[in-house]
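Exercise 3.2. Students should predict the tertiary structure of the chain below and write it as structure tokens, then compare their answer with the key that follows.

Predict this chain's 3D structure.
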Amino acid sequence: MTPQRPPWCVGLTGGIASGKSTVAELFAARGVPVIDTDLLAREVVAPGTEGLAAVAAAFGPRVLDDDGRLDRAALGRRVFADASARRTLEAILHPRIRQRLRDRLARLRAPYAVAVVPLLVETGMDRDMDAVVVVDLPEALQRERLMAREGLDAAEATQRMATQASREQRLAVADYVIDNSRARGSLAGQVADLHRRLLARAAAHPPIRSETHRDE
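Answer key:
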């Protein structure tokens, strides 16, 4: 018997406070495997990993706590305002996250899986995906929701949003767009429709798994 092929990998992204987690939960409720790359990012710098050793070698022992674990706050202070340090950190983390994602996908048996990648555009991981889904809403509404969720003022929310790719950059790589500017209940219908479309496409086309590009 021919072994079942690995699933399609559908990248799910959107700006901060866009509703990615809610959409991911709706896919999961339909039985779709969901992989959160934020969790993978934590795994690759867990105690005893090569990733943690590489971060400590690059940034020094001050980014570790007394137990030898990564001090995320200390590391964040190092890279937040230093683009060079941020690129160094990304060069350590991103290849390991990509490899861990590939490993997870290889063990799955499903038509497609959803990988939640908040910084999909910023990291270039859109090129690794068989399809990209963007959760979209107007920036003014995004700012309003971020302020309510995090207790920020308008200036602070705008600054947070400015650290990510723009709405236009995300939409430029989107194969599918989920509109989260409507009432919350409409998301379920959009996900149900997209689920049917993705099942059909995944059945008709093998996964791309390109390291360098995604065919259009």
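Discussion points: Residues 209-216 have pLDDT under 50 and may be disordered. The chain has two domains: 1-33+111-203, 44-107.
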